[in-house]
C-alpha cells in the first residue's frame, strides 16, 4: 500500500479541525506513517456556509454516498453527530469493508455494541478516541496503557459545559441560569443545552469508559444520571464551608461485585485534584490495582483538540492498513468484551456520603427530630451547619453524613419531608471524600 | 502463534512486580491478548534474597544467557538496571531476533540510538514505557495519542525522590539534608541519591520524552542539568512570598528553531497544575499545537506502577507477535527519527524569568547599584523583597525579573558579585510563569 486515503463525512467544527490538521502538516503525518495520508473527499449537506478552512471544490461533495462508495477510501471519518443517521452511515461504511473513525459519543454509547459486532464480522476497526474528552488520550490509556490493570474506579469531569457553568457559579455566586447564559455567550454551551446540563453527555462518555475499563458491553441505560440545572448557589456556598467544591462527576466503581455507574453533581474536597480542574477543562481520575491513582486532564472539546484525537485514530488505523493488517485490537480491548455483561447496582444499593439541606420552618426541636429519623435509618451525621439566614421563610440546616446507603437516605428524607416543621423537598447531594469514612460508632 | 512467551532478566523490585502481574491475572491478560501470555523464565544473579513473590524453581535461573538463548522466548524484559551490562544484554537479545521491553531510562537515554538502530535492522521492537514516569502512559501518548501534534513544550516533574524532598522542605521548612534523610527512611531515596537529587535521572527521562515529542535522535548530553542539593529553605520561603512553589522541572520547548532542554529547580506559580503535584508523584504538563495543554499525573515509581507499564508493553508487542507482525511502530514514532538531529540551544541563549537572592553587606545604596547593573544588562525587575532578617551577617535582597537572557543574567551576576557591598555568590533560580511576561518598558 503506497498511501492511505481518508474520506470525511461531516464538515462542521470538528470536521474543519480534522481537515486543517490533515492539510497543514502532511510532512509530519507521512513521516509518522512512512507513507502519505491522503484526504480524498469531504462530504457535507451544506457546502455554502463559510468555514475556517477552504478545500478545492473537487474534494467536496454534498453526497455522503460518494464517500462510502469510493473504492479508494480506506478510512471513513464520521463527524455528522446525532444518532440514527450516524448509525446508518457507520454501519454502511463497515459493510463496505471500510475502517471507521468517529467522535460521536452518543452513537457509541447507544449503538456501540451493534457497531462493534458488525466491525468484528467485517474484520475492520472502529476507532473513537475523540468521543471521550476530546484530545485527552484516555481511550488509548484504557485500551493499551493500563491493559495490565484491574480498574477500581473512575471519577471524571467529562463535560466542559457543565464544568464551566459550575466554575462560574462558584466564582461569581451566580445562579445556574446566569452561568448558563454566560456559557452560551462564550460559546461553551449550545442553544439547547439539555444534553450537557442534564448530565446525558457525561453519561454517554462514562458508558464508553466503563466498557473499556471492565472489558464489557456498553450499557448506557444502566447509568444513573442527574444534571446540574437544579443546583442553587446556596448549596455551593455551604459546600465550600464544609471544604468542598461541587463538580458534575461521572463515577464508576468496581469492588469485584456489581458495578457503580452514576453521573450527578458531587461534592469533592477542595484539595482533590479534580477540584482544581476549572472552566471548560475535562479530567479523568482513575485508580488501577497496579498503577494506583492516575489523572489525565486537558481540553475536552473544541475543533483542534478533538481533531487531534481523530487524526491520531486515523494514523493508528493507517499503520495497520500499511502493514496489511485489517484488525489489530478489538475496539473494547478484547474480543470477549461484547459477550460480557457486567451488571450495575441500582442506585438504591450505592453506599456513599451525603450532603443534606433541610429547610426548618421552626427551629427549636427540629434538629433532634431530623437526627432522630436519620438515626433510625442508620445514617450518622459527620458535621452540621445551622445558620440564621432565612431562605423563603425557612432556616437552612445543612449536614454531611458518614457513609450511608442510598435506599436508607431516600426513606429517611421521605420521613423527614413529612414532618410539619420541615419545608420539603430536602436538597441532597452525594459526596466523594476519601477522608470521610464510615461512622466510627 | 498459540501463546507468547516472556523471559525476564532482573528479579528485583520491578521484576517482582512484573512477575506478580503476569502470574496473578492470567485470565485478564489472555482475555486482552486472545492467546495465553506465558512467563517462561526469570533470571537473576541472586536467587537467595527473599522476595515478595515466589516462583517455582524450574522458572528461575542465575544465568541470563539461558533466557537469551531460549528459542521459545519471544520477548525479553530487561530489568537489571545500570547501563553497560544492560546495553550488552539488550543488544544480544535484539541480535537473537527477540523483542525487548525495558524500564531502564539511563540505558535508553545513553544508548537508545544504537539500540533502536539495531532493532530496526533486526526487524524487532524495543518498548520502554516504564522508563519514564512509571505507570503513567506518557510514551504511548506521545508516540500515538498525540501523533498529530507539533509539540510546543513539556514541563515535567519526572523524579519522585526530588519531588518528595521538595514537598517536605516546603511543608516543614527543613533543610535539604533533613528532607533527604527522611526520604531515605521512607524508601523514596536510595543510599546514594546522586542520580536523583542532582537531576540526572530527570534528564534521562527528558531526553526520552524529547526524542518522542520531536521525532528526533536521543541527545542526552545536550540537556542542561542542575539538581536540588544546594537549595536552601530560605529560598523556598521567599519563593512562597512571591506566590511560587519550587519544583525540579524538566523543561523542553520548541519555538520552531533550536530546542530548549533543561532540568533545574524552578519557581512555578502556586496555582499552576504542576505546583499541586506533591510527594512522590510524577506529572507531565505538555502543550501540543492541536491538543492544547494536557496534564498526566500518577505514581512515577514503585514495583506495581512500573510493572503496569512493563506489562502493557509486553501486551502491545504480544499483539504484534500474535498477528505475525514483527515490527509495527518504530520506537520513536517514525523511522526517520534516528536520522534526525534537532539542535538544542546552549543555556546562555535561553530567555526566561529569574529569581535572584543577593546578600547585601551594607544596605544603603546597594539596591541602586544592583539594579543599575541589571539595567545595563537589559534585565528588568518585576518585584523586590527587602527584609531585615540577617543571614550570615548580610541582608537578603530578593527579586524576580521580567524575561531576560541567561547570558546577560550570568554577566550581570558576575558584575554584581564583584561589588564590595555584596557577599557572593548570588543565588539565582529560573521561573516558569506564563503570567510574568516580558517587561512592558
Structural account:
2 copies of one chain form a homodimer. Chain A has 441 residues and is an alpha/beta fold. Chain A has 3 domains: 4-136 and 303-339, 3-Layer(aba) Sandwich (Rossmann fold), CATH 3.40.50.720; 138-299, Dihydrodipicolinate Reductase, domain 2 (2-Layer Sandwich); 347-431, Alpha-Beta Plaits (2-Layer Sandwich), CATH 3.30.70. In chain A, 36% of the residues lie in helices and 23% in strands. The first copy, chain A, has helices at 13-24, 26-33, 64-69, 84-95, 105-122, 138-145, 160-172, 176-185, 194-197, 200-214, 233-241, 303-322, 366-376, 406-417; strands spanning 4-9, 37-43, 60-61, 75-78, 99-102, 126-127, 151-157, 224-225, 244-254, 259-269, 281-288, 292-299, 351-360, 381-386, 395-401, 404-405, 427-431. In chain A, the strands form 2 sheets. In chain A, strands 7, 8, 9, 10, 11, 12, 13, 14, 15, 16 and 17 form an 11-stranded mixed β-sheet that branches. The longest helix of chain A is centred in the last third of the chain and has 20 residues, at 303-322. Chain A is elongated, with a radius of gyration of 24 Å. The mean pLDDT of chain A is 95. The interface between A and B is large, with 56 and 56 residues. Strand 12 (292-299) of chain A pairs antiparallel with strand 12 of chain B, so a sheet runs across the interface.
